[in-house]
Amino acid sequence: MNRLLLESGNYLDSSGNVLAGDVGIEDGKILFIGSAPKGWQSDQIIDCRDKLTIPGFVNAHTHAAMTLLRSYADDMALMDWLQQKVWPAEANLTGEDVYWGSQLAIAEMLASGTTAFADMYFFMDRVAQACVETGIRASLSRGLIAAGASEENLRLSENEQLFIDYHGAENGRISVMLGPHAPYTCPPECMKKVVALSERIGAEIHVHLAETQWEVNQSQKKYGKSPVSLLDELGVFERGTLAAHCVWVSPQDIEILAAKKVRVAHNPSSNLKLASGAAPVTAMLEAGVIVGLGTDGATSNNNLDMLEEVRLASFLQKLNRMDPTVLPARQILSLSTQGGAAALGQAESLGRIEVGCNADLAVFDMTAPHWYPRHDLASMLAYSANSADVLYTLVDGRILYSKGEFMTLDIERVKAEAAARGLRLAK
Amino acid sequence: MNRLLLESGNYLDSSGNVLAGDVGIEDGKILFIGSAPKGWQSDQIIDCRDKLTIPGFVNAHTHAAMTLLRSYADDMALMDWLQQKVWPAEANLTGEDVYWGSQLAIAEMLASGTTAFADMYFFMDRVAQACVETGIRASLSRGLIAAGASEENLRLSENEQLFIDYHGAENGRISVMLGPHAPYTCPPECMKKVVALSERIGAEIHVHLAETQWEVNQSQKKYGKSPVSLLDELGVFERGTLAAHCVWVSPQDIEILAAKKVRVAHNPSSNLKLASGAAPVTAMLEAGVIVGLGTDGATSNNNLDMLEEVRLASFLQKLNRMDPTVLPARQILSLSTQGGAAALGQAESLGRIEVGCNADLAVFDMTAPHWYPRHDLASMLAYSANSADVLYTLVDGRILYSKGEFMTLDIERVKAEAAARGLRLAK
User: Fold this and answer.
1) Looking at CB atoms within 10 Å, which of A273, B44, B54, B305 has the fewest?
2) Where are the domains of chain A?
3) What ipTM, to 2 d.p.?
């Protein structure tokens, strides 16, 4: 048994309020909040005075290994960016590159309070390896792209193998979805094959959806319907779906997303940096759509800092509605934790500081100047805090990051490998 | 003589490129870049390997002491926020409160790489005192508000006294402007008195302008012209003007701002958090308007982190224009440094790492995971960096902040005073 006590601190409860109290962890789960059961003794104590413990952020959509191309190509038009820069560089990616790029991403996520992420990329067995080794929680999917009308390169069997090898691995810490890239890169015939596999093996689906106006226009022209309608008709939403972006969705699309319980990953930094648009998050929430927050890849962000997404998501909806009361602090924090947990299909066990939930936690130090005075700690977390305030990050009750030290990865090697590999890819 | 060498680092040059080289400082100014003049010896050396030196950020618009009300009232409609929360709390402010609130703000700014700020508030002699003591650069103005049509409370003589006492103080480190709050709080008769004083003593003006749609509508209704036109006709733009916000400006307004060389302080976080709108920064820049960036007060932000404003300002314009190429990394960094220096009327001596400029600098550590790999350092600074990466902050060549330590203020006392005073005000 592994018993850890977060002593004398403050914690963010599932309603978004900050309360004072101990948090006790046993065998990877939250055993109690408030005071310990009689006779319970911890193996280890973290002094949480002047600290705030929150459910770790869930990064609901990223491409971890794209850290290798961070700052390689910015401020470019989307197709120039993809065709001239990203795709040529990615063509030279090796499995080893993806492993080290993912390690770098995991280091950055742990250091900024993220405890779980949903990933879609290539060489996903190497991403899985990085997750197994570092101890972070992840939902992995192989990006499935059909070049033109061909299905040869779809790599469906690779995704199936990933599912067989890793779904539920590490006591459920790693899960696997199928990753049809997007309606415009994985046309109906391919999408049907993905759906058939999803049905056969019981896998959920992670897809990019309605990211740009171009995508919607192209879908209307080609199929006479929106990307959301198209995927709905193809059966993509039947067994649990995580849909990234959903920037250009109509009221009818939103109804479908709500009815089919599609979980949307909203990526405000990426949507703004690529000038894709501002997703109608408030409208989706009003319609009952489940929404989590994501960073997208580090090439279109350019970091994996979930606290930046929290702030930007709230600000953007206030602007969109011209109403400062929408997406208030408690609600946006909930999106970044509970919303993300739901996006990963793990709402029951993740994203809340409640007895029985997985002890995936981030502990913020509150001694920097921007934490004073403390009128409202939830508000301070949402609008004032800095991700560098994170002191400890735990997954399944295990301390993976502690005061600048990474317990499960060799950060100097990770940085050196990522630097060398990133520069090689850019050549 | 005080000679400091920033050795073996990288620095952001005035075109926005990052170059490798030493930076030598003598008597508060940049003496050389690259290699030292023959025989020159430093008194002190900072090892800048793996570090990036930038001109300190200039926060072109804030209300420093409002840190005391940080997180006191968020996610509220503007008038509810002001009438029910901010104004009642401010009514109880003392000079001592403002002094400690300003110290807290200065600590936060120094720790995040800001070396100068433009402030408008009350008890400005106490803000000046905090600036004198801490060594930060500031442009100070007394907020001038006429209650109703009355001018009794205008406090013009207080602003004049501030000018007499502090303009040019500390070898030019502190300057003073007149601070007519806004066209709607300082009506034409009052504004004329401000202009007359500005003419008599040669003071520049700091004003809030065209922040909300309501302000513009009200101005049209009352005066038949926009707030920008109104102030132009009243002569407010004749002797150097810093105008905060300018969210709701027409093409005609923008022409006036450009022609009169008005310096605009763009405050994207505050404008979004209060749902004021998105300023047409790209259009203003295209028209030749000088633009700096500001945080506004910590009640509507809720921190004083200029790097967040850098990122948000760029993202917001990309969204506004639906074009990812606008406000690219180098340009937005320039707004936060050179633009801010110009906003403060100090373009000649500030905001650039060039020989002869004031040595107001921030040194970023580049060893965190988000600094790898390094394809483009200017891009990384704009889009990946975290303000907590700041290791050293210098004003006039003097190290004010060094690896978490504040050299000119008692941070524990500042935090304790701010905490106690903030909570008292909220009662």
Assistant:
1) B44
2) 3-55+352-406, 57-343
3) 0.97
